[in-house]
Amino acid sequence: MSPGGEGARETRSLSSGTAGGGTAMSRPARGLGAAPGQDRGRGLGEGFGVTERTDGWWVEPLLQGLMLLVMGAYATWAAFQGNHYEFGGYLSPFYSPLLKPSWWPFSPALLVLGAPLGFRGTCYYYRKAYYRAFFADPVACAVGEPRGSGYQGESSFPFVLQNLHRYLIYLAIPILFFLWVDIVKGFIFDGRFGIGIGSLVLLASNSLLTMYTFSCHSIRHLLGGRSDCFSCLAAGGPRFKVWQTSSWLNSHHMAWAWWSLFAVCSADLYVRLCSWGVIQDLRLM
Known about the structure:
This protein is mainly alpha-helical. 49% of the residues lie in helices and 3% in strands.
């Protein structure tokens, strides 16, 4: 049969939704079978909170919102205090690296928190958390939103600033270096190596911060996201192993995000309580 024969015409007809000159089969406007990109499931266009879900879909965004409010409020208060952030060799992670120029009349933390705050605030996971908890965009999968237009992307101000995340990673990593220097100082007592409860608290805080930073999606992309064939690259095997490790860290990014936030607030609180004399730092050795 020639390319222009009946078989070719039948193939073209079937692909366009017609057969033998009949009427086109209509595609559903929503749900299964809808045109690609046209529908994202039940909930789009429904009234706020309307859903067919029967589980406790509201629990997760509620808890996330409460935790972000509590820890965000504490971190803001601690950053503006400008005092009681040191005790012996311990330094609150909110104030590292410690900069105290004579011309700066405010808390030293405000000079250094811009990079880590920007990095965390534009984090892919945290976007999901606070979009759902505070903007209800969407409040949960397959649940009606306050506005019916659906997801509009991050292409306009102020949400376009979220794209700075991939660049803020280059500022967040150097902060980790200074934090690890502070950890070493936290194990020095009277010029000798020692271990206090505060040493371990700060070590746990920075370990989790490091896990959170290096589990970032941007790090994973830098390590291998632009490579389609590791075996075609120089040192492809080791590079693939590094990318696999990054992928494992990335798969737990949500956990690192919450644990690191809790740990850094706890470390600051511990240093403050010691500085205030509320508790005594116990020396283990």
